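[09:14] KT: can someone run the structure on this one? pasting the chain below
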Amino acid sequence: MKIFDVSQKRVHIFVKGKVQGVYFRQGMKDVAEKKNVTGWVRNLQDKRVEAILEGKDNDVNSVIEWSHMGPPSAIVDYVEIINENYTDEFSKFEILI
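[09:31] RB: done, structure tokens below
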């Protein structure tokens, strides 16, 4: 059984608005990598963006904060955040297709 530092966090987020075709995924990847956050981001058919973020609490919160604005050409209407159990299953942050 793995025991994780309580400062580690995992969230599953869904971002709604004008978030596809505006470099949202690449922007999130850049921020996540800068903050040492692992996981993935992808576009959904319903025009939302979905992501799983894992890392230190403050670093994950920084990526969540960025996702409320996104890149300059994005218009974020709503961010749904679901807290999950930290699993340490990722070694990097990826854009899924």
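[09:33] KT: thanks! The chain has one domain: 8-95.
[09:34] RB: yep, looked fine to me
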